[in-house]
Amino acid sequence: MQKTLKLIVFFFLLTACAASPAAMPTVVPATATSTATMLPPMPIDERLDAFMEKMPVRTPQPREALPSEGVVEFRILHWNDFHGELGEHVVDGTWVPGAARLAAFVKTEEAGVDPNQVLLLDAGDWYEGSSFSRPSRGAKVLEFYKSLGVDAITLGNHEFWFGMPRFYQIASEAEPIDILSANLRREGINNTCSDQRILSPYQIYELGEEQGPKVRVAVIGVSIGNLEVLVYNDAWTTGICFQTPAGEIINIYDQLMETEHPDVLVVLSHSGLDEDLKIARDLNAAGKPVDLIIGGHSHDWMEEPKIVGNTYVVTAGELGRAVGEFDLTYDRVSKSLDVKWKQEIFSACSPEDPNTLTFLEDTVSATLTKRECVLPNIKNPAYDYLIDMPAISESVGFWTLGKGIFPASESGLIINHVITSHEREYPYGLFAHAPSELKYALDGKYISFITEIGINETACGDGASFVVNLDDREIYRSENMLPSDNHISLELDVSGGKVLTLRTLSGNDMSCDWTIWGDPYLVKK
């Protein structure tokens, strides 16, 4: 099938896209690799041959299973669709935190644990897409990732936007980072995919404390099928094609399990959330399940993992604005994996790594406007905060009421963190999925009700409105607010009131209409 025809068909299927070295987890070697050097100009097929000679594809290596004893704790930090956003700035109205905040968070999470207990993964679209990365054509981002200690990356469509020769050069210079793809193939005759792999489909990592038991983790890289079409320029993807991701995982699954004996299987995917869920379903239906699918491409935000069978599917926003974090415990005796996940969303108050700021001085202009850090409110003992008051009644459209922290799901997968939105933290705030209704007894003891109102900026719904009633009288009603709207400060007279009712009225998608009452309190007579 010609690529032009594939573009027409695929368009309807998906329209979405995009310091000192850190210690690395133990990588189990498979084949020797050569030190990458800059490849000389040559025809594209010869350049591909030269690249593949320097970057031999990993083949399964027989090894014994690890001993069935002990418990291993380890951590996976992941992000996606970084798009080379090295510096703090605002693009199309979206605040981008910059690489220094990403580096500071990674270093904090690595501190206090064995270096071999942490795995850093990127789910693609990592080095192209910003004014910071284009002058070096991705080299500055690669240098940053090496200093950060990134372990593995899968391929996004933007990896090819500097052309195939540049992709080959970046990939050949990436060591010790593993660039993985199980479904990238050399193009065969008549624009079909051949059976010849270009990159290693997976890598094996053994994690755990230096003197303790280990867990063997296989990370498999995939991208959405026909990814080359999403590059939108045939000249940039000459000689390559992408097969169906689930099918390629199934093809290598049995040999991987029987020869390498991994304990945990992770798919690192640049396919989009919907496609990742389909991959999970297809693998489960084929009897080839994986433990985690860590995704990118669709720039989705999540509050908790999606679960398909026993497979946890996650993604972490975009542009370095967030990092997903798995805290995992593997019991070698029962061969069971305990999974907890949270997402760190950066704000202007998030610390910046000074070494990274120094590293970026020649790339990021000092004249760029930096967003001001706005600290959370400090509780005043003269006021009564609703978070401390028992409600007469409360109802929310989904999950439970969040009090100072985002609510955990019933499955307990989320490690709770402070309610945050629009660069503000609300440690005494209330977080409710609309529609919601909260009632509090005032008994005539208060004169003012003070709060901020707004929609969490990562919400995916169509907004919600806020209503305040005093007894049977409506004293405030907002217009429909969207996630992009700035929060509104309210001060309302509640003198003589007996009952305060706070309501949020949802649009059509109650699971994403995430409303916030920002640190609401009452002023006494």
Characterization of the model:
By secondary structure, the chain is of the alpha+beta class. It folds into two domains: 3-13 and 68-359, Metallo-dependent phosphatases (Purple Acid Phosphatase, chain A, domain 2); 383-524, NPCBM/NEW2 domain (Jelly Rolls, Sandwich). The protein contains eight helices and 31 strands. The protein has helices at 3-13, 44-54, 99-110, 139-148, 164-172, 245-260, 273-285, 354-359; strands at 26-27, 71-79, 89-91, 94-96, 118-122, 152-154, 178-180, 184-187, 193-197, 202-207, 215-223, 240-242, 264-270, 292-296, 306-308, 311-315, 322-331, 336-345, 383-385, 393-395, 402-403, 419-421, 424-426, 430-433, 436-441, 446-455, 464-470, 473-477, 488-493, 499-506, 514-524. The strands form seven sheets. A seven-stranded mixed β-sheet has the order 1-10-11-13-14-16-15, with helices on one face. The chain has a six-stranded mixed β-sheet with strand order 7-6-5-2-17-18, with helices on one face. Strands 19, 21, 24, 26, 29 and 31 form a six-stranded antiparallel β-sheet that branches. A hairpin with a 2-residue loop joins strand 3 (89-91) and strand 4. Helix 6 (245-260) packs across helix 7 (273-285). The longest helix is centred in the middle third of the chain and has 16 residues, at 245-260. It is elongated, with a radius of gyration of 25 Å. It starts with a helix and ends with a strand. Residues 1-23, 31-42 and 410-415 have low confidence and may be disordered.
